[in-house]
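[recover] target loaded
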């Protein structure tokens, strides 16, 4: 009984964490001052300098953002992938332990919930000062959920074969 409740609460905890961080203005989350205080970021310049791409109409590279800005951007986007991966996995686990559904139904439902929450998260950011909603982040979040879904699928299909 308690196991079912705990598994049911896990995705709500992840959603709460995402909501909390989306509620913070950018200045409150800026990692650059802390990174510059404790790390010698010049060591990363040769590693980060070759990386260049366009995101939300802006060229993302060391020349435009500096080493600290580039590193922070990559950390923030990796955080998007990670928390929505976790949301997918915890939602699947909640459904797995609380429903009698098949693997396909649990995966599809978990992924739909993950993508819908990614959409809600971007809407929520539109209400937060100094935060900008961007559909590209929904795609990134959805990719994190998709990775989680693929790994779950592989785990369960491999386990079934044994």
């Amino acid at each position: 009984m308690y196991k079912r409740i705990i598994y049911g609460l896990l995705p709500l905890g992840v959603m709460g964490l995402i909501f909390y961080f989306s509620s913070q203005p950018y200045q409150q989350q800026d990692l650059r001052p802390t990174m510059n205080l404790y790390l010698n970021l010049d060591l990363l310049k040769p590693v980060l300098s070759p990386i260049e791409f366009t995101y939300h109409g802006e060229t993302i590279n060391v020349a435009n953002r500096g080493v600290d800005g580039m590193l922070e951007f990559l950390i923030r986007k990796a955080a998007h992938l990670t928390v929505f991966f976790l949301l997918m996995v915890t939602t699947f686990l909640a459904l797995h332990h609380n429903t009698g559904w098949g693997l396909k139904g649990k995966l599809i439902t978990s992924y739909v919930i993950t993508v819908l929450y990614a959409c809600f998260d971007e809407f929520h950011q539109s209400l937060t000062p100094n935060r900008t909603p961007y559909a590209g982040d929904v795609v990134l979040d959805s990719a994190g959920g998709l990775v989680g879904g693929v790994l779950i699928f592989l785990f369960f299909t491999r386990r079934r074969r044994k």
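[recover] notes: The mean pLDDT is 95.
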